[in-house]
Give the backbone structure.
Amino acid sequence: LAVLNQTRRNFYKEAKLKHNLEKKYADGISAIVTSDQTYSFEDIGMLLNCNVNRLSDKEKKLLSDSLYNVREAVDENNLNRENYEKLIDYFELRQYWGKRLKYGTLSARQTALRRLDDLDIEIPGSVISSLTYNRNPYLRKRARTSFMYYSRTNPYKFFNEDFDRNFNQWDKIEVHRTLARRKDKNIPRFNHWVMNSGNIEFQCFLIEEIRFFNQKESAPYLSEIALTNENIELRESSIKTLGKIKHESLESDLIKD
């Protein structure tokens, strides 16, 4: 009973703290990230009137939630990216979550990795690389999607490992989301991994991504799978994608076959 009462008190205490922080800073944060004007740190300090040096870890965690919620509510075209980045550094959220990712418990590291990703805070390569072979599957897989998003040299290196062992439905969602976020960067042709992977689930997923990104140049490879591969899932997925990217010669080829 004592533990239950303490849990309840902690809940209400955090809820009250969150309410007070949002009342004090939410409108200012929203105005800053949607402003046409680019603010300096001094401007932000004057607008928010926040003594950052006195913020507790709990307050930084809750401010991260507020900043994330405001950012999600704002259309990307209306987001002042430079002001958003300055707010992250003003509240010292990069340092806060980076420290938890590097030195925290397993649970704290999982939360930190998710929050850094949510806030679109770039993670140092040395830190993220060390987690891509972590024994914990959640942490390892999340680190690999983060690596894929942030790496400038070899973002798709883990596709050579079928992304990860036991590639599952949740992995498909996370990898697709990361690929979609990279759409303005370099999206590779997926046919290389389709042809060389031995994981049916991963191959079918990549064929779906070929469809999503409309990679017409992969049509010959998919035609070969549709016409000659013995696996029904791969053949069906290839035919669907070929139909979507309008590979007109496939129908006559199938009839001949």
Notes: The first helix runs from residue 2 to 34.
